[in-house]
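CO-FOLDING WORKSHEET

Operator: S.A.
Ligand of interest: flavin-adenine dinucleotide
Run index: 590
Mode: holo prediction, single chain
Checklist:
[x] sequence pasted
[x] SMILES validated
[ ] output reviewed
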Amino acid sequence: MRVAVLIKQVPRFEEMSLGADGRLRREGLELEMNPYCRRAVAKGVELARAAQGRCTVFTLGPPAAEEVLREAVAWGADDAVLITDPAFAGSDTLATSRALAQALRREGPFDLILAGRNSVDADTGQVAAEIAELLDLPMLAGVRILDLHHGAVHAHCEQDDGWLDAEVRLPAVITTAERLCPPCKVGPEGRAAVRPEHIRPMGPVDLGEGPWGQAGSPTTVGRVRVLEVQRRCQVLGGDIAAQVRQAVDVLRRAGALDGTAATELAGSVPDSGAVTGTAIAVLTEPGRPRIARELLGAAARLAADAAARVVGFSLEDVDPVEAGGWGADEVVALQGSAVEEDVAAAAAQWCSEHAPWAVLAASTMWGREVAGRLAARIGAGLTGDAVELEVADGRLVCWKPAFGGQLVAAITASSPVQMATVRPGVLPLLQPRRAEAAVETRTVAPRGRLHVVERGRDDELDVLATARTVVAVGTGVLPEEYALLQPLRDALGAELAATRKVADRGWLPHSRQVGITGRAIAPCLYVAVGVAGKFNHIIGFRAAHFALAINSDPLAPIFEAVDLGIVGDWHEVVPLLVRELTPAESAARS
Ligand SMILES: Cc1cc2nc3c(=O)[nH]c(=O)nc-3n(C[C@H](O)[C@H](O)[C@H](O)COP(=O)(O)OP(=O)(O)OC[C@H]3O[C@@H](n4cnc5c(N)ncnc54)[C@H](O)[C@@H]3O)c2cc1C
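OUTPUT RECEIVED:
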């Protein structure tokens, strides 16, 4: 049994903080192993040992990335490969995937390739999918429980807003959820004790002809915008009733209660102009109608600027009038398989026939795998998790957040087909137009390497993404007390979100977790109740228009990350807040 583990070095997020200007304090930023990769190493070592096999760890990075390999070897990995050379500088995800895939071919064959679900700095989640495609392997993403027997992996996977039980025969690529197992963690002394011969450097001479690095990267990072969030950090104090009255007054004046501050007129889906021109393809995941509509509307807007037609790919029954209304000029109805690798193969075939201008998918786990595989197949530049799309000089510009949303960078692709996955819920839902799409049916040939046993949803992905108001709970609110927050949620029309501690304890689903390893959301009003306000959490609501915190500890860090703070026990604050927010009750008192 040979296990390969792919790891990445990232900035140490736990130590990060925001300055008063809302910017990341970057001085002395330490580097460490990506948290998801820590689980991949721990599991890889465990599986290799159990099977009396070997576990080899790989990373691509500057010479300093050796430190994360040392940690993995100190934890128990048998050896490590450091792909490093100035020639690899500026590698985007595809160039990284190609170099790692080549190293895996050279050192392999491996039975199992483990990687973290995504890296917390770039958060594309596409390297593993691209490697799976380049090595022609099946893949399972976000694995939370993993059993290995009789040459197959049986896994329970954490998906965006649900779960999947599946089986896959080895060899396969598996990406790990954060809660798969305790992480690999070794202190400086243990890392320093690793002997140099355990770590083998590898360069372009070993990996063969590139192009590598920037020369082999079809995407380019352009302008960068720093997300300026000037929180007011006004912390009230003293008499609770007086604090609540003052808070509601501030909220009203800030437009945080009626949503006016954040509402924009979305407009309608533009009429199709160029039905014979080039195409923008939209890959839509089954069972996510709202996300499909957002993407089709966005594609129709881009199509108007790029003189293109919109071709939606659907795995469900197609209503031509509905699809046309939301923005599709044509629909390719795929039948036969919704498995990611099969859909990617069918889309690649279509791309080779139609040479589209761009391909879009949602940055759900399904979308990331399909898009990652397709990009690897056709050599396309893929921007992961874009939050804004525009056309400039005839090219697609994708704005992508980095460092947990601290920055947004404009990414363009130099490849003939430009690709992006788009974060669900951030693009506006447009008013449908009157139009009918032409429908073509294609059959997808199933590879049959991955067997889905059962899948389910415990939430709806779009709920938090599109909520205008969110009440987030930390461990300061016990699960049996959530009902006590219902009147506040009713008064505000709010959805419920959670900190990681809450999700870890199973009090609310993982899909409700806000933060660096959860979701980034942008409601009009964010109310944090019993939330400490650690960096890893607050990064997730940076784009909120207004943030309010209720915490009994006047020194809680949350007060430095919100516009307004009420210091008090929420059991006392919340009923008063409800009374103040409910017009009839506050009028009766005045
Ligand atoms: C790699 C990594 C990734 C992480 N990713 C995330 C992430 O994505 N999202 C995330 O949230 N966290 C994340 N964390 C964890 C994060 O660092 C914090 O540990 C976590 O957010 C704290 O959760 P909490 O606020 O619920 O709990 P606690 O730290 O336990 O805080 C509870 C708060 O409730 C207050 N409180 C208690 N009782 C009351 C009361 N009656 N009335 C009012 N206030 C009360 C307390 O004063 C305290 O401030 C991550 C950590 C690591 C290491």
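REVIEW:
The first helix runs from residue 35 to 50.
The pocket of flavin-adenine dinucleotide is lined by residues 14, 35, 474-476, 499-502, 513-518, 530-532, 534, 536-537, 550-553, 556, 569-571 (CB under 6 Å).
[x] output reviewed
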